Amino acid sequence: MNFTVKLKNSISTSASVLCVGLDPVPDYIPKPMREIYRDDDKLILEFCRRIIEATKPYVCAYKPNTAFFEALGSRGWAVLESVTDMVPSDKILIMDAKRGDIGHTALQYRHAFFDQMRADAITLNPLMGMETIDPFLDDPEKCVFVLAMTSNRGAADLLQRRFEGRLSLGEYIAEELAKKRNNSSSHLGLVTGATQPDWIRPVLKAFPDAHLLIPGIGKQGGSVSELADVLKNHKGLPVINSSRSVIYAGGDSEDWMEKVAVKAAMVKESLSIITEKYV
Amino acid sequence: MNFTVKLKNSISTSASVLCVGLDPVPDYIPKPMREIYRDDDKLILEFCRRIIEATKPYVCAYKPNTAFFEALGSRGWAVLESVTDMVPSDKILIMDAKRGDIGHTALQYRHAFFDQMRADAITLNPLMGMETIDPFLDDPEKCVFVLAMTSNRGAADLLQRRFEGRLSLGEYIAEELAKKRNNSSSHLGLVTGATQPDWIRPVLKAFPDAHLLIPGIGKQGGSVSELADVLKNHKGLPVINSSRSVIYAGGDSEDWMEKVAVKAAMVKESLSIITEKYV
To answer: What residues contact A203, with CB distance under 8 A and at least 6 apart?
Structure first.
């Protein structure tokens, strides 16, 4: 199915723009799980299964971050493959890989994430140039989310500095990506952190019809009402990510899954002033 | 062992600054191998084993690029783990991962590549800010090679553009990395493409004692004599990478391993005007 249609459907059906980030760290997983699953790979697999089970009524997408699976080596990578199979087929699967390399190497990454794992979308890092994006652009069922303005303090080092007369390097990246609109079968998106409204505005102005992957709600502390205001003229679709504040909401309690579900429902609800614009 | 000592020893013992990049693509592997090993994962494993066997007298380092292993999923990742075990313990193992993410995620990558795979060094992408480097900086046995000026045409999009009054974004990255010298136990390096001498000069001036990982010799066409000139005032150590032009030098012939060995010896020899400065 066409990516934009699938994302639109997923947002409408769940009435949610919330994406849950799957960043499983064995030590943070609820104790009741740790007592059952002694092997880290089984533990993170079963944790992800339950997170998906608990949150699926409240989300439009899941975003596994590859780092947390690579940390367990090939066993972790096998878990990542299983997790991608667990994501319900009507939800968007975004692989948070932040890859970026020259053509023939990027093609391998494309193969890994689009062909093997059948992710709907991938996050990409454009530092080595816009050609690093091209191998991902030939499939209308897929979307790339290109890093433009992240929500960490380090964004101040490069992405928030003036570049080629623009207010920021992030704005320039958005402009360059927008130029690919006519030559891309895949759908185009940007990663724009929720904690940086003043920095996102010009980025979005440079490419208003980009889909947006927005991290930084939750633990990183972005404000929903500010974000809603930033998105007033946005013409793409947004996916708003929360990772740790949802998946670890249950602490070590026996009923941790319920608490995770309640937290996901709450975050979904808190985003409703944004969601209503898109459904 | 201290990373710089190990690299210095490895260059001296082999009398070579050549690094062989392991970018195994099943379709490009010599036919005699493809006829024996029908499974792609066994094929790339045995190919890498023979490449290491054929080239080890002529190189100081090996650089597997994670993309080519990820393309085979968890089986590929298992092969990557085996390949890292095959690299002789006196050679430098550089994991070409080009990762870059915020602190708690970067820590997972560090765990994957430094702790699990025991790589001596990793390539990193600093777009999200210099904080993304920090989790890799606490170990004197390790080195980070941060992307500063790559050898692809896309370098012109971002890395070669003016930034904060510097000639290039790459130069700025080098300056920012140099500031970490006093707070890093790990050793610091830059990725600087061989095909871009005029762009490398200012990068190197900003951080003359950085170790250098230099791709672009071979298929990408960098000139050795120009490079030697660029390195005149360099105070770190260089690792000069060649991937495809060495590992696929044997074509489909029965004696492909010999041809690969001859090619590696030739490239090593062609680099001797550079090597002699460092031994």
So the answer is: A148, A149, A168, A170, A171, A173, A174, A190, A192
